[in-house]
Amino acid sequence: MTAITALKFSRDLAVAGPLGGLLADADSFAHHEWDAIVPVPLGRSRLIQRGFNQAEVLAERARQARKLGGHRVAALRRLLRRRRATVAQHELPLAARQANVAGAFCPRGSVRGLRLLVIDDVTTTGATLIACLAALRRAGARQVAGLALLRTLA
Q: Which class is 3-151 in CATH?
């Protein structure tokens, strides 16, 4: 079992610290000025089932790792929400993933003029991050970027 699988499906929060440390060292996390770190939101049913949002846990552990290093770190803010439930991306063929999350996200509160780093745990096609970034751009965010802990191959 991989560490990310243990976190997501076995609720092994002990691996979140080391995984968050890996995110904290990523160039886009460590070497840019962000106004907020934004986790990709889970759908309500998945959040209830899992009991936590793994992207949020990883983002918070990454923030803590940067703070321990004496760095200024942007606040973690839940600036995205899911408008509707979606099928878990890993259950879909690659060609269906973009359509699955198209229009699924919208901002929670004002993001106008903000520089935002969106954090996800795993990406394959990038469809979820792209949908999140597009929603934030449409709402007036000044700068957006996405960062995932792990990229899987199709």
A: alpha beta
